[in-house]
Specification:
The protein contains 18 helices and no strands. The chain has about 475 residues and is mostly helical. The chain has a single domain (about 5-455), classed as Amino acid/polyamine transporter I.
């Protein structure tokens, strides 16, 4: 991929308009949440990615950076969490596409968004379709991501236009003022949404994860990071503002909130036909987002498989398409499993929130490592490293590392706080905690087993036959 392909790729990965309703449901205060997340988390992330990708441009990204700074075990754990969090995150994106289908098909498909069984079955079909496309390679997959980025831009433009037209004919659905913007902190449980904001700002490092598949990564990655960064925060603010204009915050649904707003506004201004095109564009956004994360995250087990801390089969590439097809298929099966598990005994809303918060927990662990690695590797930096790095001033790097680490740690803690919209708190806490542990514990076991095998090989010469007791 060249710099512009990578820019579209990052926009497709970063801008998940479908998650805007989760934040927007607290009212105009959502605007402040996006700004705080940008300043406190996104900017430090940008510094970390630009600096570390300049010094260590090889494929693997966060995995390689953590491994270089803290050793094999921490590199493995970071890479494992980075990969497995997408096993939860990708199903949430697929749920959006199914939810949009409910609008596209009208009354005939309206029940899809509220039926866990149909939601699960259609999500599984979409998951394997997108997995198959990515097995064909980035030359094919990048078009899904590019179309998704275009769908994101067009969707934002349309919902803003609809919101402004509605505002010109009647008052805004939510009063937007300085007091209302700060009202988002009136309910202490709303602080949990800061972790979701951080999740929606992750992804700048994906270009580095694909390092060996990018043309001139030292030039392409910084350019794409800057373009994607400005685009991301702008689109999130515009989409949230438009949603506040069109629908009361307490009525915003977490899955179809944007389409709710568009439908209500379109009916008010006598343009009901616009709902279906917007639903199609939103589907493209979700598909691009899914494809980007599926492609990027699958490179982590691929690289770890090459290092042989995971089964070596994960490090294999397809003989024709030269893609990590085994890693992609394994990720597809794992996501399929958790789509089924999350559907058992949960409403569609709680099912979505459980997957989302588990994703947040696993995603932020690698970011803790990334910011810590930024600090540690900067402390070790010599004159040659400074020449290869993106920033010349070490103090700006330290500041970004410390701020990013503290904010990430805080977001990780509040991820366990259920939002006010969760109906079954104990079910939420149990499934979220067990979901995270069910992936962290196997990582420790796998690494331990691998180390024992390596020690055994060293202790026993290759030409000595070991006779079992």
């Amino acid at each position: 991929m060249g710099p512009y392909d990578l820019s579209f790729f990052l926009v497709a990965a970063l801008v998940n308009l479908n998650s805007v309703p989760v934040i927007a449901a607290i009212g105009p205060g959502a605007l402040l949440f996006w700004l705080l997340g940008f300043v406190l988390f996104f900017l430090p992330q940008g510094v970390a990615v630009l600096e570390l990708s300049s010094r260590y441009p090889q494929e693997g990204g966060i995995y390689n950076w953590t491994k270089t700074a803290f050793g094999d075990f921490h590199g493995f754990l970071s890479g494992w969490c980075y990969w497995t969090n997408n096993i939860f995150y990708i199903p949430t994106l697929l749920f959006y596409i199914v939810g949009f289908a409910a609008y596209i098909g009208g009354a005939a498909t309206a029940s899809l968004a509220t039926n866990p069984l149909s939601m699960s079955l259609i999500s599984l079909a979409l998951l394997w379709l997108i997995t198959g496309i990515n097995i064909l390679g980035l030359d094919v997959g990048k078009w899904v991501q590019s179309v998704g980025a275009i769908g994101t831009l067009l969707t934002t433009a349309v919902i803003l236009a609809v919101g402004l037209i509605m505002l010109s004919t009647q008052s805004a659905a939510n009063a937007i003022s300085v007091p209302s913007v700060f009202s988002g902190f009136s309910d202490w449980r709303s602080i949990a949404l800061l972790s979701v904001v951080c999740l929606n700002y992750v992804g700048l490092e994906l270009g580095s994860v694909l390092g060996d598949e990018i043309k001139e990564p030292r030039k392409s990655i910084p350019r794409a990071v800057m373009i994607a960064g400005v685009t991301t925060v702008t689109l999130y603010l515009i989409a949230t503002f438009a949603l506040q204009l069109t629908i009361p915050s307490q009525e915003i649904g977490v899955i179809d909130g944007i389409l709710q707003g568009v439908q209500r506004a379109a009916t008010s201004i006598q343009l009901p036909w616009i709902v279906i095109p917007v639903a199609l564009l939103m589907s493209l956004n979700a598909a691009g987002n899914t494809s980007a994360w599926l492609a990027g995250s699958s490179r982590i087990p691929f690289v770890i498989g090459i290092d042989r801390y995971l089964p070596a089969a994960l490090g294999r590439t397809h003989p024709r398409f030269h893609t990590p097809h085994v890693a992609l298929v394994v990720q597809g099966f794992a996501s399929s499993l958790f789509i089924v598990i999350s559907a058992i005994g949960s409403s569609v809303h709680d099912m979505y929130m459980i997957l989302l918060q588990t994703t947040v927990i696993l995603q932020l662990i690698p970011y803790l490592y990334m910011f810590a690695a930024l600090i540690r590797l900067t402390l070790r930096r010599n004159a040659a490293d400074a020449e290869e790095g993106y920033f010349r001033n070490s103090w700006s790097i330290y500041a970004a590392g410390v701020l990013g680490f503290l904010v990430t740690a805080g977001a990780l803690c509040v991820a366990f706080i259920p939002s006010a919209s969760v109906s079954d708190v104990w079910n939420f806490e149990l499934k979220t905690t067990l979901g995270a542990l069910s992936f962290l514990i196997p990582a420790l076991i796998l690494f331990r087993v691998r180390i024992r095998k390596d020690r055994f090989r060293v202790a026993v010469p290759q030409d000595v036959e070991v006779v079992p007791d």
